[in-house]
């Protein structure tokens, strides 16, 4: 029975977009496509604004760090609230808050009253919103599509993110030249209306999890935030199928994924191709990432520990090759491969992390994942910056690649308990399929 269903799905010409057949996910995905593109335009506009006000690359790093700092500070706790409250309601709140932040930024710029400290505050507030929004969005996907279509839905979301990463900055650059940076903030604010409208139109009765989980003790009393947090961390600790790949992916990205902060040095000092070359390298990275996401959507395979580790090994090897490359055409090809391998590495883990946990702890698992994967970005930036200033940009990337391979190698040696646990965990998650 299972094999016949699977072979039938493999013959389906629309299997790459299978999850979009579900109305709720189609609404949410479409709204996100518009909103994420607007967010990338605001990111470009914010960087341009900071440089225009300060002419200081250091301030770019400060603003970026302030926007990511709340992820480090609050992510562990936001997962508790994601598990306690209806995720649709949380997303309506966070998307509305992000809309207000973008409108405030637009007003301050359009009225010529913007100051650096205001950018600091607004960047930090957006980070606070993000620390709650991302785990809620990730945990909401399974409610939209169910477990069977979840791998495809995760891959489609990754394709959306990477498509927006390619189109958003390019469109933002054109708009800055044509109408000024304030337009980007206004368009981003308007783009959030697409997600808010999509969330409002979602049919609650068609969600695969009909209500939020109310965290109560065995005596009927509400469980404290600290107790809920300990419960979520204890679940992860005793679930090697999630703990091992999360640790490998988190550390692998910490060491290997932050090379883009010194990518301009490669373009100018190593490959001698200047700003146009930097743009081409960034574009190649985005195209490769998009192709990786589309491949995941087309195959829609359930992730395995081995696949995640092999993707990490390929990512590390390609990163090392890029560090040693001095030919610009070869560098473009390798950079596309790096983007593809990194996407496979991260998104296969994302599939596992979203489908394996039981509903009552999924939000906390997502929040710890956000902490490991997004919260370590500032540390990676510092590491890459220090290594490149102490030695050189190629040496920094080569060290990052080597450390990534060490982490993946250690994960490979320790994979046996995680693979056994993964079979048990996945079997419990899909128990209903055999009925």
Per DSSP, the total helix count is: 17
Distance between the termini: 11 Å
Say what the CATH topology of the largest domain is.
Growth Hormone, Chain: A
CATH architecture of the largest domain: Up-down Bundle
The mean pLDDT is 83
* Class by SSE composition: mainly alpha
Beta-strand content:
under 5%
Order of helices and strands: HHHHHHHHHHHHHHHHH
Structure description:
This protein is an all-alpha fold and 435 residues long. The chain has two domains: 16-204, Growth Hormone, Chain: A, CATH 1.20.1250; 225-430, Growth Hormone, Chain: A. The protein has 17 helices and no strands. The chain is globular.
What is the topology?
Blueprint: H1 2-11, H2 23-54, H3 57-84, H4 87-110, H5 116-145, H6 150-179, H7 182-201, H8 225-237, H9 240-256, H10 263-270, H11 274-299, H12 305-324, H13 328-355, H14 362-373, H15 377-390, H16 393-413, H17 415-429
Features:
single chain; disordered N terminus; Growth Hormone, Chain: A; 435 residues; disordered C terminus; mainly alpha; 0% strand; 17 helices; 2 domains
